[in-house]
Amino acid sequence: MVYGEKSDVFSIQTINLTKRFAKKKHRGFFSFLRREQSKKNNAVTVALDKVNIKIRPRELFGLLGPNGSGKTTMIKCLSTILIPDEGTAIVNGFDIRKETSMVRASLGMVVGGERTLYWKLTARDNLMYFSSLYKMHKRHAKDRIEELLETLQLSERADERLEDYSTGMRQKVAIARALLHDPPILLLDEPTLGLDPGFARQIRNQIRDLSKKQGKTVLLTTHYMDEADQLCDRVAFINNGEIVAVDTPNRLKAMVKETELVEVSVYRPPADIEKQLRSLLPEAEVVKLIPGDEAEGVPSRIKIIGGTTEEHVGKIIDALRQKNIRIGSLNVGVPTLEDVFIKLTGAKLTEGGMQ
Amino acid sequence: MDNNNEDYRLREVKCPTGFNWSNLKAELRAVWAANIKDWKIEFAYPESFFRQLISPLVFLLPFLLYGLVLVGGRYSDDLAQLVGTGDIVTFIFTGYMLMGFIGTAVWAMGFSIRMERWFGTLEAIYVTPTSRLGQVLGMALHSTIHQSIGTLIQFIVIYLTFGLALKIEGILPALGIFALMMIALYGFGIVVSAVGLLLKEGWMVSDGLYSIMMILSPVAYPLTVLPTVAQQISTAFPTAPALIGMRSFLMEGYQPEVIINVFLHLIVLGAVWILFGILVFRLVDVYVRKRGMLKKF
User: Fold this and answer.
1) Are B168 and B254 spatial neighbours (Cβ–Cβ below 8 Å)?
2) Which residues of B touch A125 (CB under 8 A)?
3) What are the chain A neighbours of B26 within 8 Å (beta carbons)?
4) Which of A71, A93, A100, A134 has the fewest CB atoms nearer than 10 Å to its CB?
5) Domain end: A250, A283, A313, which one?
6) pLDDT tens readout for residues A3-48
C-alpha cells in the first residue's frame, strides 16, 4: 500500500524502502569457537520494512515514532548516508541509488543533539567551509552566509568559536548550514533534541517559516508529539520499521474519540497496575502505564483508551484508592497524537525506546 | 516514475556535477577549503602547532648522531662504496627529509576520515555533493604544506650546523622526483584512508604500514643491506626509487641516465597507486554505507 494523496509531483517518494541491520552481540574474544552462539549472533533487525511514502512539494511532513523505530534510518537512506537493501526513493526527482550527487545537492540535513560542526571554528568559518562542499562560489557563499546569520540572529557572535556557543545556538548554525545552498528539501532529524524550551520554540518557528514562507519541503522526524502536532501538515507513524498510519494530525487524532480517553497521573504505581486495570476495564482497548520521573517531579501516567469514559472514571479512582496510590490528576478527552500512536501500536512515543 | 519531472527539479538544484571543468573547479575548491579548515583547526591549538614544526628536527638529530658515531666521523668509504657518497650527514638528511612525507600518506591521509568521525562531522560531509576523497586530499595537502615547512626548518638548521654537500644542478630534477613520489604516496594514502573508513582502530594499520614503509625505504641505510626479497618489495612503494633518484641528483649532480629509470618507475607507481586507491576507497565507501558503519567511532 502506498500512503499519501495523489499528485503529479512528489518531493520525496519511497518505494518499498527496506533496510536491515545484522545484530552483532559481543560475547567475548573466543565466541567464534562456540558455534551455536555464533548462529544466534546472526540475527537481523529490520529497521525499515517496505516503506512507501509520498511527500508533496512544500509539505511539512512529520515522521513520528519512538527511539529505534526507523526514523533516523529513513533519513539516512534518503540522504544517501545509508544504502537500502531493497527498494529505493526518489528525492527531488533523483534516485537515491543512482543519482547520489544530485540527491545530496537537493537536500539540507539537520541532526539534533550531536556534534556535527567544528567546535574549534567560528560559525562563519564553519559555514564558509561547508559552502565549498556544496560547490558554491565564494562571493555568493559570503552573501548567503551573511543573510542566514542575520535571519537566524547569529550575526553578533558569528566570529566566535562554536565551543563558546550554547547547544541551541549551535543548532541554529546547523540549520544555517543546511540552508546554505538553498535546497528545495530539508531533512530534519530530531532538530529540537536536547534544546531548552526557548530555543526549541525558536527552532520550531524557523521550521514553520521554511515550509510556509520559503516553500521548502520538510521531512521532520521527532518523538515529540506536540512538535509534530503543531508543525506538520501530515504525520506518518512509524513503528518497528513499518509505517502504521499517515494523515493530518487532526484526522489522526479523530481516531481516538474524546469520550473514550482517560489519562490519570499517579505517583509510585505498582508494576502490575496495567494488568489490574485491564481486568477491571475489559472494554478498554488500551491500558498503558507511562513511567514518569518522580525525582524530577514528573508523575507516571496511565492512559486508558476505548470503552465509555463515564463508566471508567469511577472504577479507576476506586481501584487506585484501594491500592493507596496517590492520584495527581485525572483528565478525560482531548486526545493527542501519542494517544493515537498508543491505540495503533500499543507502544509509547516517549524517550527510552520501545516500551 | 510519476515524479521524474525535469522542469521541476532543474529549477530547484544549482550544483555542478559530472565530468566538466566547472565541477572539477568546484571539487578543487573543496580540497583547498578542507586544507584551510585543517589549518584553522590546527591554529586553535598553538602549542601543538609549534611542537609539530619543531619535532621533525628533534627526531632527526639522534639519527645524525648515531650515524656520525657509527661511521666514526663525517665521511665513510664503506658508505661511498654502497651508495656513491660517503657523507653520512647528507645521506641521512636526504633520507629523513622524505620520512615526514611518508607520514603524510600513512598518518595524515589515513587519519583524515578518523578525525572527521572524531569531530562528529563525517556524516555532515557525506550529505554534501562533493567527492569524499576531497576530505582526504585536503588533509594530504595540509600535511604536505606542513611537512614542507618542517623540512625547510630542518634544512636551514642542519645546513647551518653541519653543512650539507648538495649539488645545486640536481635540485630541479630532485624536485621533479619528489612531485612524482608525492602523487604515488597520495594514491597509497587513499588506500590507507579507506582502511580508516572501514576499521574503528585503523590507526593500528597506519602504525604497521608506517613501520613497513620505513624498513623498505632507504632513509638511514642503503637498500642493499636489506634481503633481496625486501628489496624487490620496496620497488612497489614510491619512497625507495624516489630516495635513490633524489640522492643521485642532490649528491652527485645532474644524471640523465637516472632520469628515465626513476621517472618512469614513479610515473607507473603513481598511476597504479592512484587508480588502486580510488577503487579501494569506492568499494569501502559503498560497503560502509551498506552496513551503516559511517558513524562507528
Assistant:
1) no
2) 37, 40
3) 135
4) A100
5) A250
6) 444 456 899 999 999 999 987 666 666 666 665 555 555 688 899 9
